[in-house]
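Known limitations

Files may contain more than one protein. Parsers should not assume a single record per file. Below, a two-record file is shown to illustrate correct handling: read the sequence, read the token line, then continue until end of file.
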Amino acid sequence: MPDFKDRLVRHAEHIKNVSSHCSTEETTKQALILPLLDALGFSPYDPTKVQAEYGANLPGIKANERVDYALFVAGNPVMFIEAKSCSDKLTNHTGQLVRYFNSTPGVSVAAITNGREWRFYSDQKHTNIMDTTPFLVVDFESLADSDADKLSRFRYDKFNPDGLRSFAEEQTLLECFTAAIESCLREPDADFIRFVATRSDAAGRLTPKQVEAYTPIVKQALVEAISKVVVGGLSAPVPAPATEPAAVPRCDCPDGDVVDPDNPKIVTTEAERRVLALVQAILDGKAEESEIVGKDTESYFSVCYQGKNNRWLLRYHGDRATPYISFNIPMTLERTKQAARAGLVVQPNNTIALVKPEHLMKLSNVLFDALEFCKNDENFKRKGNGEESA
């Protein structure tokens, strides 16, 4: 393989040096095309491997059709090559090649070239009907390191028609995926932002306002991730995500526990304040931040609507080996399924294990329902007198 790569590099230099002298198709064939066939192991001096002006008639369409070169393996034609002058552009020149390809079912690959650029075609969409789009383009004036590996599949000693069809499919998918990834890297859309946030444990379902807020952060994360990959390579281990991803809003309170001056048994922990900040972020746009208030007790920490004790959205029990939360609404089968899909455990007593406060972001839908329940005054009226219950 190193020798093959060296030959391609030398051939690329040769093209740069002599292409300006290849003003005709015949000169292009002799100076630029045949040397590459020889490097691939298809000696132009061996008619069992290469035949020029090979007959490829499409019955009933056109007679006396001849392709510039047919490559043979084990006595059978396996690839057709249509040659153009070095000065010709290859666009709109595939008409003849299509007819040649379609006339010979045993041929799995076809190429058109001006010596500088090679375009390779197969029949992925319809068997024995050449595709209109090449699955591989190699430009010897800007030869990439990966091109040698790709071209090695066309070597005489490695030529495998079925393998090349699979390779063509892979290359087509690679191009499509690369274009999609490049689009995401340059202008990540809302779906990509949600994917990154969810994969990083930063969130489950995001509100449109959160997606908008996270977009510049994800863009910066993409730049830093690409930089790390370039420096360390794809084989480098991916570091574990931080406990608190940068994209998740932080509370403004000081670190550590805060003791209630009126009751030293009530200690508001940093995790409890974090729960409040996260709930406020999730409900942003559905309720004012001032309407979502935290209330601590000796037993649990509540997040309440409008500061009313009876209109609590959730209660957080952080003083357990595994912290958990409960909501003011029942965990129906649908809500339980949502939590399970988010990777969270709904416990027998209708509570949800919450190993990290950030996992609340995966329960956005339940929080939205809890808020709607709290906003409805009818849910808090005493039966009979219409007064709000305590």
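...continuing to the second record:
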Amino acid sequence: MQHYLVATDNQPAAKAITRSFSSQAELTVVHSPQELHAALGRRIPDVLFADVSWLDRSPERTLDTIRTALRALWAIAPNLEVIVLAGQENIREAVKSVRAGADNYLTYPVSAEEAAYVLESLRESRMMQTELEYLRSSADGKTRIPLEQVHSTVMQTVFDKVRRVAATDTTILLQGETGTGKGVLAKLIHARSNRSKGPFMGVHCGAIPETLVESELFGHEKGAFTGASKRKPGRFEVAAKGTIFLDEIGTISLPTQVRLLQVLQDKVFQRVGGVNDIPMEARIVAASNVDLEELVKKGQFRADLLFRLNVFPIRVPALRERREDIPLLAETFLQRLRQRQMKKIQGIHPEVLTAFQNYAWPGNIRELENLMERAYILETSHMLSPDNFPQDLFAGGAPLANVSLDLSLPLAAVRNQAKEQAQRRYIEELIAECRGRINLTAERAGITTRQLRKLLTRYGIDKSVYKQSKSGTSGTQK
């Protein structure tokens, strides 16, 4: 369970941020700088929402002083994610904070929708980071696997292209299925570029409401539209001197495509409702999980925009095309889980590794990571066993067949064990068939959604795995 710390004396903002959390999150709210430091001393949060004036209390907040303040936080909590809060009068400091290393910023007045979007962006970023740490060497070079150690030739080709293009300012288009690690490669390109000290700004185009896409990308002036009560810099402006990653680029509307094409051609843009030209100084990496050429044929994507984006294309292979790397990925995820969960699980059962090699992996690397994490939480022995993985991972329901019977137990206890196994398998297969949709699964099972959610929690079943594995996307159905 993640722990969030909200540090602001702006009561409406604190309430809005609080409403954006899931019910499973732990939350602490403090209302003064003194309370902030005391709270950090008691417990380190996973994510900190903090007023910029509380982070850096120097008279003139510069990029260097903000960076120093953030480094002081990371000296205490290296993995702390920081979201800066700022009023309209401090918006420059908020942008400086992102350039200094903060993960994102929100401006007052804060809405619950904005806060929820930022949290979702952080979650996506964390998923990207998992394989990124596998791909990159760490500072000391002791715990990470160099790029050259991947075994599959298709990924070696991808990494060779990354090495060649990273140091340039060339626009890159990454194409591949959902969950293949396109976001990871985008971060890797940024990290290996001459812009690595600048910001990396990820934008999931499909997650932004259509009415807000242009505002998010290019910013807006006060009064530009209903609800625009303040001026807001867009992602292109914040990402200046760095990299902007446009994920799911195929989801943007034709009018937004026209605006983006103009920016790519002219290298300048204006905020929504503005008239002043702003130089476009960010390097663009775009990604799509659908064939953009097919969208062009259907009239859903502009051919001239595709030409501008497709300067240096990189096809990211599906996991089933790089099966040689599955053991390395699985071991890396296991190592990461050991560090995070502090459980002494030392290995993976050979039957599980065999199943990994034979499975189709419709959800790709993301599905592998999710399955590993769930099994790790459920496992009580020293090795990840078949019993704690979904049944469709194994041909013919092997895990159930291999459940050992404890003959020291009375028949009633054994019967209860078998009932639990059957019930878990039923829920897993039904929610997979319903593509992760809670309402439909509960209806077909003849139970309430509340009862179903309790069973999902009881058996550690993650509905998002089945959304990805069956539909190819991680939709937002509940």
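Parsers that stop after the first record will miss the second one. For reference, the second record is described as follows. The mean pLDDT is 82.
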